[in-house]
Amino acid sequence: MKIVLGPASKELGEKIAELTGIEKVPVAHKTFPDGETYIRLESPIQDDHVVIVQTTSPPQDSRLIQLAFMADAAKRNGASKVTAVVPYLAYARQDKIFLKGETISIETVAHMLSAAGVDALITVNVHSANALTKFPFPAKTLSAIPLLAEHFTRRGFTKAFALAPDKGAMHIAEEAKKILGGECGHLEKQRDRYTGQVNVAKKAFNVKGATVIIFDDIISTGGTIVGAAKILKELGAKRVFAACVHPLLIGDAEKRILEAGVEEIVGTDSVTSHVSKVSLAPLISKELKALQSG
Ligand code: R5P
Description:
Elements: E1 2-5, H1 10-20, E2 23-25, E3 27-31, E4 37-41, E5 49-53, H2 60-76, E6 81-86, H3 105-116, E7 120-124, H4 129-132, E8 139-142, H5 145-154, E9 161-164, H6 170-180, E10 184-186, E11 188-191, E12 198-201, E13 211-219, H7 223-234, E14 239-247, H8 253-259, E15 264-268, E16 276-278, H9 281-293
Bound molecules: ribose-5-phosphate.
């Protein structure tokens, strides 16, 4: 097995290589003056199972093309198998037709990666498990929620209330609760499919004076966390934290979240950000070691 250090996840790839002892394959890459992407694998991978570590957070499209080019380069140079480790899987939220005339974006991405030479995919906290059914090859998701919850227990936040901003994220809050040892619950959220505007509805929770950690898979514009944090503050929560696997933090999301009363945002290195305080390296390394020995 060899680890290709995708340009979007070079540091994470380095950490995984260090933890697993798997040999690294450096990648030369550049963007041509006209915007096109160039990729070259810098060491031999003949007959190797090649694992490409490349997240697809913004800029999603160029990172997907880099991933496809790395997979193709691996196969052309004799790789026996290509596994893509894509911590943040772009387009996983468009896993079905919501409005007439749309595409199932993740299905197109899946077929593009297959055509490029990817044989298997590992992602982390994919937005919907249904997205993985669109891949024509084995695709699985790992969960970083225990790592995020452990980050908080190490800091003494045992028994904190784990809150999901909507019903769909309740399984995440339940996973966190197992580590935190407190209570958990969810709010109700609605998003306007045309404007993207988020509305989080108030619900009665006994969080007066409590420490609450809002858990979600993605923080994008921050609208979801802002809505949830405002409600928690109205309900009398003393301290509010936000934890997410994929801190996209678009535009002024972080500022708005902090202004809504969140003390701190904790994310993972699925997306490189100053809030990426938890590394996915141990989780992914464990998976790769199991693959090696299996
Ligand atoms: C969607 O349901 C996801 O789980 C997140 O809640 C959502 O992507 C967050 O987006 P935003 O930060 O823009 O509200």
